[in-house]
Records
---
Amino acid sequence: NAGVMQNPRHLVRRRGQEARLRCSPMKGHSHVYWYRQLPEEGLKFMVYLQKENIIDESGMPKERFSAEFPKEGPSILRIQQVVRGDSAAYFCASSLIGGRESKNYGYTFGSGTRLTVV
Amino acid sequence: EDQVTQSPEALRLQEGESSSLNCSYTVSGLRGLFWYRQDPGKGPEFVFTLYSAGEEKEKERLKATLTKKESFLHITAPKPEDSATYLCAVQAESNYKLTFGKGTLLTVNP
């Protein structure tokens, strides 16, 4: 029973390149959340998706960042024209029921993708 | 805006030396308070969820308590394998996201 799978584990990009981060939720989970952890900072919410729908992207920078969760396949977080400030650990979490359901029993996190922009 | 403050930032204990980690929070209607453990290079691992003031949860050497303003994670007779960063997060009734504190880095020396 695999957990949340993220790949790649480490990603190095030059400034101006594109970064694509993938997340496969736990089996049976249809709610996916992306968080970013900057050095010396706490985890920050970026976006919440269900299959084929973006539910809340209030934590996502307005430019260069986009996310999708297609009907088939993993969720993708895409960062265009990366800059040094994008260097961080990006974590994906999934849940069985949605974040607004009563008694949310917690989110399962993946091991993250560590993005380094050089 | 929801806020979570964890203290201390770092805590060093000897094996067997019990202590507590603090999580102070402000949130507009608490849906749940979460404790996670994070090892270096890994993602957060779920430990507990608490839903209402007065609630307590216990697992092995860990016990979490909750009031209307803060939560404590009590560690009894810790072992070196309890060394990790412990993260506290709150979820408000009105939205989906978890708001995290910066964590407490716990080191337990043998």
Note: Chain A touches chain B through 30 residues (CB under 8 Å).
---
Amino acid sequence: GNSVTQMEGPVTLSEEAFLTINCTYTATGYPSLFWYVQYPGEGLQLLLKATKADDKGSNKGFEATYRKETTSFHLEKGSVQVSDSAVYFCALSYNQGGKLIFGQGTELSVKP
Amino acid sequence: AAGVIQSPRHLIKEKRETATLKCYPIPRHDTVYWYQQGPGQDPQFLISFYEKMQSDKGSIPDRFSAQQFSDYHSELNMSSLELGDSALYFCASSGSIGDRPLDTQYFGPGTRLTVL
């Protein structure tokens, strides 16, 4: 079946460090891929998305590229800030209008 | 911009009681999704509606039911509550172009249900 696997957290970084959160997926066909962010005590916010192979999603300095050959959608940011501390979820949607399947989430903590 | 509205934000119930959670999608969004997020867990899909008809069903217990009304808001009804039902319940909505659903879901802030 369809599934998403993320690197385990928590990830602790110093401010201005480079961030990578790995995400791989298993799916038949061509799913859409997403990164959502959840700040403490809040709901899920869409961070970025990509809908086909080699698409790059970007937002607020975060980037992720849809790699079909490696079935991956790794999240990167060149210089993290304390305000980026949150839980990050990778997700896929197999059909338009279909449910989201989430990875287990990766907690990021950025220290000043 | 208007977002997804959920009510109540917090709810405390006793075992075996019932609860009703409400969701108001973004205006002109016709698809609503419900997810359950246990402590430290990823959100799990429960059920979805498109144009007031159930479109998909996930791991929703038989004790739960849901519907989407003519104004597109949705309600999740939960009966015979158990301790394990304590979780964050998210509603999300998405729109469509013509009869083609869009794949981006926008989430509400969630309802935190505590069952004692």
Note: Chain B touches chain A through 28 residues (CB under 8 Å).
